[in-house]
Amino acid sequence: MGYGSRQVAAVAIRMALSESREEEHRLKTEFAAKGIRAAAVDCGGEFISSVQKIVERAVVAAKREGVIREVHAEEGAVAGATREALSQLMPKALGLNVGGKIGIARYQDHISVAVFLGIGLLHLDEVGIGLGHRAVS
Question: Whom does it interact with, and what assembly results (predicted)?
Fold first, then answer.
């Protein structure tokens, strides 16, 4: 069975919502059996100053977990999808501290990146999720 951008995006979201390393590992194994490569990595800090670090963490995690190869086009696809996801979160997070997880998933030429963040202001926390997709050949 083949998977399209919608299914790959759902996998990225599930990875971003995973609550422990054990759950991440279980999900990666489950998705690998279906031919979907996945990764997750924690992120956080003051939103504006953390954007570059979040993008870098996504690319490094994707390479480390074998989601992408160390090829310019694939690294760029993950970086672009991560920036797209962050741009969706920017209106809520601008000027605030954030903490959460990046989920990355790939099936054939579909790559999706989901960023799930808790957005803090004193004890009044907000949450948000951003999603980006790219196609690579």
Answer: Homohexamer.
Structural domains in the chain plus CATH codes: 5-135 (3.40.1510.10)
Residues 6+ apart with CB under 8 A from 58: 41, 78, 79, 82, 102, 104, 113
Model pTM?
A: 0.94
> pLDDT tens for residues 1-59?
678 999 999 999 999 999 999 999 999 999 999 999 999 999 999 999 999 999 999 99
Tell which phi-psi region holds residue 96, choosing left (phi > 0), alpha (psi between -120 and 50) or beta. Answer: beta
Residue type, 131: L
Question: Contacts from 67-72 at CB under 8 Å and sequence distance 24+?
Answer: 67/37, 67/38, 67/39, 67/104, 67/105, 67/106, 67/111, 68/106, 68/111, 68/136
Rounded-to-integer distance, Cα 130 and Cα 33, Å: 26
